[in-house]
Amino acid sequence: MPTFEFTVKELKKLSRKKGATENIRLCGFYSNDGGKTFEPDEVKCNGCNWEVTRLFVRAENREEAEKLLISGSAGLCGECYSSMLAEGVECAKM
Ligand SMILES: [Zn+2]
Asked: What residue numbers bound the domain in which 48 lies?
């Protein structure tokens, strides 16, 4: 199964979709123009909870990867992702 990489910019777009808000945990700041624009620069890993700049998802295709991210059942930082691969875990929270 291929691996897909999502940057904070892509995750910000995805986080606007229904149900994704609490699953894609973006961290960032509110810009000064009226305090309305949220500018995420990091996202929380679903494994270790660290704030990172990109998440990795293992899925059949990118559409599937996006669905997994939105549902909160995927999205690991590089560190967690590589240890998942090293342990050979197939269906654990990716
Ligand atoms: Zn992690």
From this structure: 3-87
With a CB cutoff of 8 Å and minimum separation 6, the contacts of 82 are none
pLDDT digits (tens, 9 = 90+) for 8-45: 999 999 999 998 989 999 999 887 777 678 889 999 99
Contacts of 87 (CB under 8 A, 6+ apart): none
CA of 38 to the centre of ligand 1 (A): 23
Distance from the alpha carbon of residue 37 to the mean position of ligand 1, in angstroms: 27
Does residue 93 belong to any structural domain of this protein? no
Domains: count for the chain: 1
Cβ neighbors of 69 (< 8 A, separation 6 or more) are 6, 11, 14, 20, 23, 24, 55, 57, 75
Q: Ligand 1 centroid vs 13 CA: distance in angstroms?
A: 21
- Tokens representing 11 are 């995750």
